[in-house]
Amino acid sequence: MEVAVNLEIIQKKIGQACARSGRNPEDIKVIGVTKYVTIERTKEAIDAGIKNLGENRSEGFLEKYNHFGEQAKWHFIGTLQSRKVKEVIDKIDVLHSLDRISLAKEINKRATGPVDCFVQVNVSGEDSKHGMEPEEVIPFIEKIEMYDHIRVIGLMTMAPHIDDPEQIRKVFRKLAALRDSVREKGWSHAPCEYLSMGMSNDYDIAIEEGATHIRIGSKLVGS
Ligand SMILES: *Cc1c(COP(=O)(O)O)cnc(C)c1O
User: Rounded to a whole number, what is the distance in angstroms from the first to the last CA of the chain?
Assistant: First the structure.
């Protein structure tokens, strides 16, 4: 299916989820996850109007970045190995996977300016998932205040691979509550306004629970 056709279907579902939850579709950013697809297909996404692209590995990211450069905003959504920070950090616009002190330290050392980051949280407790435990989030953010290149703009999670929408909803709701408690701290290095949650199979539920950044791969560009 053409990306433009998929995007139209997704935008319609976003509109419906916003209507159900009293939200404005303009507050939701669609990140086209191109990790599965070619340069040609990525170009189709850009031509369809996708302005934000997501990649989860540094090799795949650099290939796309070297090709498209500033034609898109770049979201790094996968685990970032500390030894890769140097080659990618000044090229990405947003990191969705800040998950440890050692990574914050390396980013602080290598970045030449402030980096917008989401702290990745393992809300569901599935041990196959990356991210820190919910209880660790506030102490973690407090600790990284000393790294002045890190700006915590929000929290990110991945829902578990289950079919029960109410279980998935609970995960998103818990992340939203945690985001609220970080925001209440009023930390200047952590405005923590945003929620990166929702993928191809659950973005409608994520929007109902407050998602501001949805990361869509297979249902937008294919897999
Ligand atoms: C692959 C990936 C996505 C997109 O997954 P789809 O189910 O294909 O939409 C979103 N977020 C992360 C972190 C991913 O690795």
Answer: 12
Q: What letter does residue 161 receive in the DSSP assignment? A: S
Ligand 1 touching residue 78 (CB < 6 A): yes
Buried/exposed code over 60-77 (b: 16+ C-beta within 10 A; e: otherwise): ebebbbeebeeebebbbb
* 118, 165 Cβ separation under 8 angstroms: no
Domain ranges of the chain: 3-221
Mean pLDDT by 10 residues, the chain (223 residues): 96 98 98 97 98 98 98 98 97 98 98 98 82 97 98 96 94 98 98 98 98 98 93
What pLDDT is attached to residue 126? 78
Decide: 220 in ligand 1 pocket, CB within 6 A: no
Q: Are 219 and 199 in contact (CB under 8 A)?
A: no
Tokens 């990405």 found at: 92
Q: Mark residue 213 as left, alpha or beta (left: phi above 0; alpha: psi -120 to 50; beta: remaining).
A: beta
- For ligand 1, is residue 199 a contact (CB within 6 Å)? yes
Q: Give the 3-state secondary structure of residue 46.
A: helix
Look up the CATH superfamily of 3-221: Alanine racemase (3.20.20.10)
